[in-house]
Every structure is written in structure tokens, then in C-alpha cells.
Amino acid sequence: MFKSLFEGNALLDLPVVTLLGFFAAFCGIVAWAFLRRRAADFDSVSQLPLADDDVAILPRSTERRASQD
Amino acid sequence: MTDTVALEKRRITYDDGTVRAFVFASVAWGLIGLLVGLLAALQLSFWQLNFDTPWLTFSRIRPLHTNAVIFALVGNMMFAGVYHSSQRLLKSRMASDLLSKIHLWSWQLVILGAAITLPLGITQSKEYAELEWFLDLLVVVSWVAFAVNFFWTLKIRNERNLYVAIWFYIATILTIAVLYIVNNLALPVTGTKSYGIFAGAQDALTQWWYGHNAVAFFLTTPILGIMYYYLPKAADRPVYSYRLSIIHFWALVFIYIWAGPHHLLYTALPDWAQSLGMLFSLMLWAPSWGGMLNGLLTLRGAWHKVRTDPVLKFFVAGVTFYGMSTFEGPLLSIKSVSALGHYTDWIIGHVHGGALGWNGFMAAGMFYWLVPRLFGTKLHSTGAADFHFWIGTFGILMYVVAMWVGGVTQGLMWRELNPDGSLVYPQWVEIIAQVKLMYMARTIGGGMYVLGWVLMIWNLWKTVASGKAVDGEAEVTVYKPAAGGPSTARLVFGAPTIMTVLGLGACYMMADSGNVVLAIVGVVVLLVIVAASGFMLAAAAKNRFQWHDVTESRPLAFTLLVVLAVVAGGVVELLPGIVMNREVPVAASGKLAVMPYTPLQLEGRDVYVSEGCYVCHSQMIRPFYEEYARYGAPSDIHESAWDHPFQWGSKRTGPDLARIGSYLETGQPKYNELWHYKHMTDPRSVSADSNMPGYPWLETTKVDLDDTPGKLQAMQALGVPYTDEQIGSALDDYRKEADGVLAKLREQAGPDDLAWDSELVALIAYLQRLGNNELVTRTAAAGGK
Fold first, then answer.
1. ipTM of the predicted structure?
2. Closest A-chain CA to B273
């Protein structure tokens, strides 16, 4: 099936059309990021690395995941 | 953001033991990888350092250097960063300590296996994919353990949102899995030898789809994730623009996967694939620089810290090198620039700017930040870390500039013509002599970098000694999703995905210009899609659940969409080449224009592959007049139709060999058998200034003839047109042809005690075969560029 598909068309068609489609989808994401998303959402997520400081550090030999279990 | 309901608060302890182990592995293996690289650099200046010893020879240890730096130094560093940051960003200990251990130790076993097998000449001879099939299986086991553990941790996380670093990790895990498996599909022939299922141009396209994206998704995306986590932490301020990081991510996922063919410009690969690679490489400029600026601007208001904090120094320089490399990469993808730079040391400078500057400096910055925290202490010496930074920076610059100068010199000398059209520098050693100084400068630069790495090891060691291993602990809030959210299936098959797929179909109908009705329908469908998308975007603001918001907090949906983007891009690019017939034209004699290798030539080719000749010699003549004048007619795509694996190469420390057996239009070998014999056993005996290592052991090492019929059978199974009769008479044919080579050697006053089943006889037969095809070559087209 694939062979007949490719033999019936220029080899370039499928990759070029797909890449144009991908580019359009990417442009949609850009539009979404700049037009629709609230700045407050971004601010809260961008703080995640700064909000994760360990509250304590334990000696290696002490309990491991007991508290999680 | 997804609505959730808080259940309870909990204290958790992170698994930092695994992080410490990966840091240690990266630092230690990294030193070995860098030292091997230093030796390889020295060997290019002093051939004596090959010691005429197989496992110390340049062509075998150069792949060891690249694999060690990529998979050991960067791989282990990446895992350390992923394990450490993911637990904190997801507010969860890794899901399975057992899987963490399996991943850690199986990965070290892979590296140990590479360190043993590559110097022994057990290799597939495909760049960054040299490991043979049994190690490939171990890589898969290790990667699956990593992936399962990571996605399981995503599932049990205690943080609603997935920070952008996690997105980069997801893309890394999935894409590397796809790339590695597809590119390493192979048919094992013996316990240590396999033939890849792709051949020639198909193999080239697949290999560089893998090779380029290994750079993208192993050396870039995970380190970007690490940048987006550790740079804000070190600077103590959030990333400059989270918006930009989202665009950076999706741009890389959508675009990077297409850029591989820029490694194959002006080769026998179809033009459309080359142009596609160039176009997408140029498009990468924007998101890459967006990412770099996002990293650097994160330091707004904190630049004064860079003066005193070595961690920030390394991060700033690392991100800047990322910008430099991602500027230079697209530049080298422009066809006219590639015509000058490809196969030269310019490319070596380019990759080292990325590897030493971006990967190495990000690793050093992360280690200096991480190790004190993993051992509950302070960095032993800030001054030593600063000195590491400066000596490393000067080392990289010296290395890169030397390779730029050397590479451009090579490119210009290769193409320099006299008014009568003859080459100004026909002797290869003249060109090598011109860049020897640059090779020395490169070695000194690399040496400075290694010195900095050693200093870092000392500094980290003293830091570890002054503290005690500690595991981080955190109090987290456990959430459960609120009822009413859309299902994962609804997200994956949501309107944006359907619109994209329908749009692709509509475009394809338009592109099929043979059918007017289909083209009109395509236009109408496209217009409808555009209008519907506009309405949906407007309506989305009023919805409770916005598609991308929800998707980015649903790992499964997010993962499936990334897979869709990566796999679709890869498949569409590779499929046309793979499904088309491997047709080799029939010559005037009635035989195939390119005949399969004889048993002797096939064994010789395996010697060529095993010794890693591709490291310094290409087999791909580009359609330039100067290449025609030096090597002969441009290579044709059919000439490598039976080559499992292809050996087009990517670097010419020595000349191209595609027509070494059929020089220019004489149809005769460029050199006789005796010349090859002398050249392989003692290169200086035929070319006084050559820097090629000798391969004297080929004279005494015997081909294992028990495997020869099986190799032909494997080739037959892969589509090479061997008949059963040829397989049946393989050993007799081998002996007959080998005796012919020996007879010629004796006629040429060569040795009379060379064994007929020595590897050297097989290799000479293979080299004399190269270019000996009845194909109608593109001689006439060789005049223009």
C-alpha cells in the first residue's frame, strides 16, 4: 500500500506537506501561548523550581521512604 | 491549570543516593573520556602514539572518546540532573528504588562494555551508534527501566503542574527510545557481529536522522531541562519568560526531528531530503536563540552574582556556548557553507564548542551546585572552581579557533585549482602539513580543559570529604484530581489534534496536483479548518478547561502528543526512502551495475568496518569539479546499495576512498596491491609525511572463515542478491580470489609469506573493489557545483 502511495506521487509531497502542517500546528501553540494564557498562570508555574527547597536534609542512613509509604 | 482537591500533608525523603552515584559516574567516566580524546588528538600530531597496537589505534579509540563523552559524561550527568530535579519538581521520591538501581548499574555496564568492545574493534561503525547488538539490547533494558521509573513517578506526583523542565525530560526519554531502536535494527550474525537492516542511502538517512537527533534529544533537550531548573535556582529568580520556554520546547519537538539530512548535503541522497534538512536547520535558529536568551535574561538583576559565583559563571558560559553552537550549526547547514566546511576540522570545532562548552560547562555548573547540597556542606574552594572556569574557557576557545582555522584551510586547499584545472595541492600530505600547527593548538586547548576537569574532581572530592551524604526531605501536600476534568482520550483526540490531522489531509489533497477535484476539496477543507480554529480559539477563553492547560498537567496525554509529533516527523521523512525499491540498474554486460561483494571483499569490508576506517576516510565524492579532479566521478546512490552499514563517513583526515579501486577514468586501481600492503603495515614507507597509524596486525590476524557463509546468508536475508549457489561456494570462491591477490603481490615483488586468509588480503581485495562498478557515472555532470 505504502509503495503504491509513494510511486503515485512525487517523493517530496508527503514530507513537505507534513512539515507545513507541523509548522502550522506550532504557530497555533505560539498563538495560544501569547494570546490566551494568563500571565498569572505562567508566574505561578515559573516559581516551581524556587518553591521546592528541601525543608530539611537527613543523614543518609535514616528513614528513606517510610514516611511516604 | 487542572483543578485538584488537597487531601493531606506528608513528609517525604528523596532518593539522593542515586543522584550521587550518577554524579560520581559522570565525573569519573568523563575524565576517562576526555583523556582518551586527548590521546586521540596527540595521535594526529604524533603517529608514534598509536604504538602499532590495535586497541590503542586512533580509529578504534576515537569512537571510544565520542561514546564516553556522550553516553558516560553527559548521560550520567543528565540522569543525575533528571533524578534530582524531577523528584523536587514533582514533589515525590522516585517511584521505584529498584528501577533506579537497575538503571544506574545497567548504564554503567553499557559504558564498561563500550570501553572493552570498541578498542577490540567490535563496532557497527555508525557514528554515535557504534555499539554492537548485545550492548544495544542492554541500552534498551536500561532506558526502559529509566522510562518506567520516570513515568511512574509522574503518575504518583504530588505537584499539579508539570514544570517545563519535565516536558524536556519527557521528550528526551521518548525520542531517544524511538531513535535508538530504529537506527540499531540489525540482524546478528555472530555473538559480536551484526548487519544493520538498512543499507546505503537508506542507512545514511536513518543514521543521520538518529545522529542529529541524538545531539538534539540527548545532548540538548535534557540539558535545557536542567538549565530551566538549575539556572533559576542558582540565580534565585524565576526563568525570564515561561511563555518563551513553552515555545522553545514545542519548536524543538516539531523542528529538530527534520534537520538530520543537513549532515548529508551534496551526497548521493535525494535533493529533496537535503533541502528539507537545510530548511529546518535554518528554522532552528529562532527557537534556539530564544532559549539561550531566556536563559541569560533569567539573570536580569542578578548579574553581579556572576562575578562571585562559579556556578553562575559556568551556566552563563554554557548557555552562551549553546547559542554559539546553535548559530554555527544552521550556518554549516547552508549548502554553500557546507561545501567548504563538510569533512573538515571545522565540524570537529563545532561539535567541541557544543560538547565542551554547552554540555561540559553545564555539567560542571550543576556539579558545583549539587555536590555541596548532596553532602550537606559547602564547596571546598570557590577559587579553584573559578580557575577551572577560566582555564576551561580558554581551552575551549583555543580548541575551537584552531579547528576553525584548520578546517577552513583544509576546505580551501582541497578546492584550490591551477588555471589549467589541475589541483594546486594534489598531495594529501601537503594539506595535512598545513594544519599540523592547528592540531597542536587543539591538543593544548583540550589539555587545558582536561586540567580544569581534574581540578574539579579534586575540589569535589575535598567537598565530599568535608561533609556527609544526606538525602533531601520535604513536606508535600497530596492532591487528588477534582471530578469533571476531560479524559486523557478526549485530550489526545481533542480539537487541535483533529484539526492538525485534517489540515494535513487537506494539504496533501492540494499537493496531489494531478486531481483538480481533490485539490478544490482540499482548499475548501482548509478554509473551513482555519475558520473553525478561529472560532474555537475565541471560545476557549470561556471554557473551564483549556486544552493545552489541561494537557500539560496530564503526563499521559502530553506524552502521547509528543510521541505523535516526533514519530510522525521521523516516519514521514524516512518512509519514502525505505519503501521504495532498492533498484540497481542492469549494465550493458547484462549484469547488475553494482554487484554484491564477493566473499573475500565482504570479509575485507568487515575488517574496514571493524578498524573504524570511516573515522578518517569518506566514501562519498561530492559533485564538485575539484572532487572529480582528486577522486573521480561523483558517487552514485546505487553504489552503496549493498552496503550494510553505509560507510560514507563524515570526516576526511585522509582522502576519500570511494574510487580508490577505479581511479578517474582509467578504470584501474589508483594503487597496486603492494602499495596497499605497505601502506597498511607501514604508511610512512609509501608516504613519508603521513599521520595515518599503521595496521601491521592485519598481516597476521586471520579471518574467521567459519562465519563467512553465514554472513552471506544474513546479507541475502537483508535483500542483497546472493544466490544459494554463491553461498554454497563461498569458501572456495574466497580461496580462489585470495590466491589471486597473493599472486599479484608476488608479481609486484611483495611478500611471499602472507597467509591467504589474513585480514590484510581481504582488506586489499575490498579496497581494490571500491569504485569498480559498471554504473553509468555522473562524470559529465561533474563540472559544476
1. 0.72
2. A12
